[in-house]
Amino acid sequence: MKVWEVSNPVFVKVLPDYRLTRVRELLRKKEARIAVIISDIASNKFGGYVGRREAIMLTSMKSDREVREYAKETPVLYRDMSIEEAIKILRENNVYAAPVLYSRSNPQVIGVLSLRDIIRALKSVGYVPKAKVAGEVMTTDNLTNYIIDQNREITEVWSKFVYDNVKALVVIQSSNNPRPVGIVTPKDLIDTGRWYFRREAENIVTSPAKVRSIMTRGVIVANIDTPIEEIANYMIRYDFSLIPVVDKDGKIVGVVTQEDVIRAYLEGIKPGRVPIPVAPPPLPVPATESPTYISGGEALSQVLVKTKAPKVSALTAGEVSIPNFPAVRIDNTIEHVLKVMLRNRVNQVIVVDKEGRIVGSVSKRNLLYSIGIKGPLWKRRPFDKEFIWEVINENVPIVRESAPIEEVARQMILNDSEIAVVVDKEGVMTGVVTKDTLINAIKETDHANLKVENVIVPLKLSIVHPHHSLAHAVRKMKAYYLDALTVAEGNIIKGVVTENKLPFLALEDSRTGIKSRRLIWIRRLERGGRPLGRYIKVTPLLVEDAMTPLQDSVKISDRVSLAVEKMREYDADGIPVTDDEGTVLGVLCKYDLLRSLARSAPSLKEEWIAKEARVRGRR
C-alpha cells in the first residue's frame, strides 16, 4: 500500500498568522491531531504544522502568540511512499500523525496520515494480526512513563506532554494501588482551560489543578488475553493513543499503543514473548433463551406452581416502617446518590425539592434501567454532572399507618416503586417502607410458610451461564421483572447476579430500549470474584465478571422463610433454587416475594387491568 491510498484528504488548514489559541480551538472542534499551516491557499503550499503538543505549550487563555512561532517542518510524508516507510518515519520521530505532501519538488499538501488511518487500512484490506492478543505486544518497559497518580499536579502532566512528548498517561488510584481510574491526554488539555496555571491578564500564578480534576474519568482496559482486533476496533473508533492492560486484580501491567497494534499486524509477537491463548467471546444465547418482554400484569401472575394466596396478615405499614431514612435533593448528582446509598447501606433514597417536599425516589433499579447517560462514562469529564431528575421515579405511593403490608406491596407493584411513604391520620409522614423492609417482614406472615415453588417464576427463566454477556443478564432481569438471576454451569451453581450489587451500570435509557450491549462502570461490594474498578473491558463484560460467588441454594420444596434467611445472610436479592436431585431450576428473588405479598391484596388484578388499559389509551 502507498501513503496516498490511506491518507485522509480532509484536514485542518490554518494560516501562518493565526493565533495559536485559535488553532487550539480548531483542533478541539475537529478532534484532529495536527493542524497544517498553508502559506499559499490557492496551491495548498506547505508552511509547516503543529500538533496537540504545540497547542498546549501556551499556559494562558489570553496569549496572542501566532502559530508560525510554534510550527515544525518535519517529519512529513510523501504520497508515493510505502506504508512501511511511513510507519518507520512516524516511529522514529515519535509522532502519531504527519502531513502528506505531493512530492519533495512539489510541497502541495494533499492530506494527513495518522497511525489510526494505518490501522483502519490494515483491517479494511483484510490483514490478520500476526500477534493475536495484547500480552504478546504490549509495552512493559519503563511503565512508569505511562502512568501518573491522580493526586499529582497537572503541571507534571503538562511537562511530560511538552518536554517528553508523551502521548497519554493512565491515571491510577495511587502509587500503592495502581488501578486505573482515568486517562489524561493532550486532547484533554485542549478540550478545557481549567488546567491553566498562568493567567497573564491577571498577573498572578494560580495553584495548579490536580490530575483527577482534568482527567477523563474511567478508562477502557484490556487483559493480556484480549484480542488485538478488539483493541484495534476501539482505536479506530475513538482514536485512543493507548489502552492499559490490567491483571486479574485490576492492576496495570502494561499498555498497548497504536504502534504496538501496527506491530501486531505487520511483525507479530515481540521478542521474548510467548503465545497466549485468546480470551473466548461471550457465550451465544440461543433464540429459545432470548428474553420475551412481558407486562407487569403478566409478571404478577407468573409462578411455577399456583396456590391459594395467603390471607392478609395483621402486620401494618406503621409497624414495619423506618422512621429515619436517607434523602437527597433533586439537584444532587447521581454520583452523590450512589455515595449516599453506599454510605447508608440502602438500595433506595427519598428525593426532596428545595422546600423539603417529597418529589420521588431513586433506587438502584432506577439507576440500572433508566440512567440515560450522555455518552460512555469514560468520555465524560469530572465536572460533567448527571442529576437525579434523569433517573427519578416520581410515583412514590403514600399509605396509611394502618394499611396491611400486602396493601403496601400492592401499591409498590402498581407504581413500579421500591419504596412507599407512610403517613398518619392527619397525613403527616411518619416513615417509609422499602422492598427490603417487606421481605424482612415476611417471616411473620403466612407467606413464610409457602413453598418456594409457589413463588418463583417458571423454570429456567432466571438462569444464566457464567460466560453469557452481562448485558444479556440485565435484559433478562428487566424482561421478567426480576432482581436476581442464578449463575450456573449445567447443574453446578456458580453464584448469583444480584441487583443490589450492580449500582454502577450505565445502559441506554430504557425508554428507547437497551440497544447498547456494553456496560460502562461497575463497583463491586464484596471481596469475592473478580474485582473491578472504574473501567470497562475492551471485550464485553461477562456474567462472571459481576456475579456474587455463592454455592448455597434452597430446594423447591423448602419454605419461603428459609430463602429469606439466606438472602439476608448473603446480602443478595436472590438465592438459587434446585429440586431434590440437585437440578438447578432458577432463583427465588425479592421481587418474587413482593409479588406474592401483592397477590394477597384485594382487587389487585382489576387495578392492573385498568392501569394497562389507560396506558394503551395514551398510545
CATH superfamily caption of the domain at 134-266: CBS-domain
Helix content: 25-40%
Strand content: 15-25%
At the first level of CATH, what is the class of the domain at 134-266? Alpha Beta
Report the total helices. 20
Question: Can you walk through the features of this model?
Answer:
The chain is α/β, with parallel strands linked by helices and 619 residues long. Among the domains are: 3-116, Roll (CBS-domain), CATH 3.10.580; 134-266, CBS-domain. It is 28% helix and 19% strand. The chain has 20 helices and 27 strands. Strands 7-8-9-10 form a 4-stranded mixed sheet. Strands 20-21-22-24 form a 4-stranded mixed sheet. A 3-stranded mixed sheet has the order 1-2-3. The longest helix is centred in the last third of the chain and has 15 residues, at 604-618. It is elongated. The chain starts with a helix and ends with a helix. The relative contact order is 0.10. The model is unreliable at 371-384 and 504-535 (pLDDT under 50).
